[in-house]
Sequence to fold (228 residues):
Amino acid sequence: MPGFVQRSFFQRFFVHSIALKIVSLLLAIGLWMVVARDPIAEVEMNVPIEFRNLPDTLEIDSASFTKAQIRVRGPERAIHRLVAADVRAEIDLAGVRPGERTFDLTGRQIHVPQDLQVVQIIPGQFHLSFDSRATRVVEVRPRVTGTFASGMRVSQVIADPPNIPIIGPRRRVDAVEAAITDPVDVSGVMTRASFVTQAYVPDPLIQVVHPTSIRVTVIMEAAGDEKK
Fold:
């Protein structure tokens, strides 16, 4: 009796093992057929380069930021599902100092979904300049436009607040004379009028520290009047 039970157990184990192997083989063949029928495709994407770990005391002093043109290859289904957010180009800026530096852009800096491969990166290198970060308070100069009434002229233009703080690369901050406002049209104003507008610095690498509305008050006077 014990021998019969033992033989029965091994028979069941053997049959079960053979069944699992057959199922595994069928799954492998099915997967291979799916992959084999999915042709390889390529797509080209323009991806902005992300800069990480820039030291707090530095600013990027380059007016144009590079975008990477990346060609990705993989199964056609994966390529069709690919969206721009799935591909990232990252450059680590930890340890950079003021001055100029050239960076290599290779597959190490490109992140793509699994099963996809980066086959081309343009450019392979790019150049950046760095400068120490600086802040400064500058005057706000309103821009006044319009067709004045006959015999009238602008007597006084008042900006409130009269000054704003700016921040950016030191060399560029030092070169700023003043912030300017969007144009305010005073056509038809006979005495005085106030306008709410914004101030900015034309240099794209300089920012207003705390952007706020600027109230511009324009006072008109007769062209023949003389200030006492």
User: Anything to note?
Assistant: DSSP finds three helices and 14 strands in the chain. Residues 35 and 75 are 8 Å apart (CA to CA). The first strand starts at residue 40 and ends at 52. The radius of gyration is 34 Å.
